[in-house]
């Protein structure tokens, strides 16, 4: 803070730039990361990116019963949901520290802005 209780604008801008860089870095890490989910004891696995984009589905031939395609469909859905859950955990892990500085805890008050 400068004399008179006013925040130092340059300091605020530097903090905002640091947060933006951290956010961009976390977003890139998520885009590069993969999360895996499975169902049926591993008969079906799904891989999604850290941002939740479905990348691959692997089906064990034992799960492919032509007389029971409904079970296979259920296993695929369950595996994709499991992978998405894992991706959400990864998002929380990567983005939590960045978004926490913006909205959690002390929020924007940590920037030293008046009235916050």
UniProtKB/TrEMBL annotation:
* Composition skew (Gly residues), residue ranges: 101-116
State the residue spans of region: Disordered.
Answer: 1-34, 97-116
Task: List the keywords (alphabetical).
Answer: Cytoplasm, DNA-binding
This protein's major location comes to cytoplasm
DNA-binding recorded as keyword: yes
Q: Residue ranges under compositional bias (Low complexity)?
A: 9-30
Which InterPro entries is this protein grouped with?
YbaB-like_sf (IPR036894), YbaB/EbfC (IPR004401)
Check the record and name the Pfam families matching this protein: YbaB_DNA_bd (PF02575)
* Record localization: Cytoplasm, Nucleoid
Report the function annotation for this chain.
Binds to DNA and alters its conformation. May be involved in regulation of gene expression, nucleoid organization and DNA protection.
> Which family, according to the similarity comment?
Belongs to the YbaB/EbfC family.
Q: How does it assemble?
A: Homodimer.
Recorded protein name is: Nucleoid-associated protein GCM10020366_57710
Q: Which organism is it from?
A: Saccharopolyspora gregorii
